[in-house]
User: What shape does this take?
Amino acid sequence: MGEMLLSYAILLYVGLMSDTEYKENLGLYFLKHPDNALLLELEWSTLAISALRTSEAPPGVFVREE
Assistant: This one.
């Protein structure tokens, strides 16, 4: 499972996978393994990163203005 998540992250980073595809695949893994702490952390991190990219931060996430 870790290898697949790493490959998805690399594909996302280099632009060969969209944010939507990454989130869908991560969500599927999380639904299959809801007790996995790494998957839970990735789910929350993905939400925070998305919020920072769109400047629509959820409560508790601060966006640094440059």
Residues 2-54 form one domain.
